[in-house]
Amino acid sequence: MMSTFQKGSGMLLAMLCLCGSAFSQQKHSKTSYYKSYKGLVMAGYQGWFNTPEDGAGRNWNHWVAKGRLEPGNIKVDLWPETKEYEKTYKTPFVRADGSPANVFSSYDASTTDLHFKWMKEYGVDGVFVQRFVGQVRGGANRHHNNRVMHHALDASKKYNRAIAVMYDLSGMRDSVDVPMLIDDWKNLVDSLHMTDGGNKQTYLYHNGKPLVALWGVGFAGRNYTLRSIERLMDFLQNDPVYGGCAVLLGVPAYWRDLAKDAASDPHLHDVLRRADIVHPWAVGRFKNEEEYANYLQQIKGDIAWCRENKVDYVPVVFPGFSWTNMYPRFPLNQIPRNNGAFFWKQISGAIGAGAEMLYVAMFDEVDEATAIFKISKDPPVGKSPFVQLAAGEPSDHYLQLTGYAAKMLRKEVPFREQIPAAKPGK
């Protein structure tokens, strides 16, 4: 029979355990200004561009693949409109009138600030800041990524834009990189205070929990297994200190059929049932509005599967695609923007099919010409070709369309299949 002292000690121990458990959950604030992804249009944010003079020690990162940056050797197919940037860097490229064509660096706080300012001005709800596995293992790459994340978090607060972390698992080593990614999330929570900014913080929540995205799940030919994905999910969802998160899984376009770009393992569906949001990658899976009409049937089937399995769903929309300077064997303007019609066809189709949230690929990726931020109407001339906007198309056209899409998604403006008329650029 237990003594009074033993009973008291037992009760005290239980209370201490409860207190410890409650304390351990304080890593994340209870809620956020952005309580759900539903009703939002978010974009992907790469933040990976550098110049030799920006202090990051990464040379012309993502402006060029290797060798010297010069006409005939560059990696991007879109040229950014840089008139509003506080700081730009000279390149060997020139415009038709002989004036220099400068670029920005993602390493600069002023660059990130301007991008989030545009999000606010045009009504883009926020971004998922990308963290590639190979870029957060250490060294200059990790330093750059941490700096961009820090600046993005500051700018999200300044302009009240939603922000979330997306881990791109491309290049992940099976099981080896799992502890590294876990430590990286711990570091973001502890050092940058990503999720403990109080109930009006800007970190994106979903289902009452901070949302973390894992992109690259279930693709054919990857070196990591679903078991490694499950280990990451278990940590993010269940760790008593750093867990309690909602999880978005970025999957192949044909994940439901386990075909084409998807691995054939049916266990993928079991893993997806544990997620909060399924996010199929559709960039490059269709090349025009007609092909998209066929792909739209895939979206409708995806939505039906997710509803049946009580998982949320977010489709991808993208404005166009080109990577001829990266891979010269491919034609310039491989998937034409068609003055915004290609982009709007996807937006109206997805919303019309019942999508409750959208993911735009991407905010700033000029490498593959998917960027929606301001694009130069006067790109450089010479050996390297660049995608040109249509005559009369403003440099901020895709920011305008994305902002209108957000209003249409929330039913703040009437649904329309036809693309809204472009306004004169700001």
TrEMBL record:
It comes from the Bacteria. InterPro entries: Glyco_Hydrolase_99 (IPR026071). It is a single-pass type II membrane protein. Keywords: Golgi apparatus, Hydrolase, Membrane, Signal, Signal-anchor, Transmembrane, Transmembrane helix. Residues 1-24 form the signal peptide. It is found in: Golgi apparatus membrane. This is Xylosidase. It comes from Chitinophaga chungangae.
